[in-house]
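Researcher: For the annotation table, I need structure tokens for Fucose isomerase. Please keep the output clean. Sequence:
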Amino acid sequence: MLKGIPQILSPELLKVLCEMGHSDQIVLSDGNFPAESMGKDCIVIRCDGHGVPELLDAILTIFPLDTYVEKSVNLMEVVPGDTVETPIWDTYKEIVSKYDSRGGATVANIERFDFYDEAKKAYAIVATGEKALYANVILQKGVVVE
């Protein structure tokens, strides 16, 4: 065990977060996301039994968001005509605001198939058991300045 590291972050996930460099992206996917087929060319980490908000909060305690881009957090946009509500997005913005002074202003929505294209280029995909719909998020890594 380590001090100061959220216990939800497995050794495999910690290793990946450490390996990632500036501008690399990681996807936190909900339970419906096709993580294995999207992640054929990247690392897929299983975190079944955990939700995206708790992982997002833990990751952002040690993961700097990219400040060289306007939007370093991207969500999958609701498909036009779909009547799904997305209250989880407000939760994400609250979590991001705890760790990044830009708050919700650094969060964007991207079209579903554009999101899939970005996910295919990600360094890693974290497959969760999140049940909320449209709960997928891409984080772009920044630099540690201290």
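Researcher: And a one-line annotation?
Model: Residues 22-140 form a domain with the RbsD-like fold fold (CATH 3.40.1650.10).
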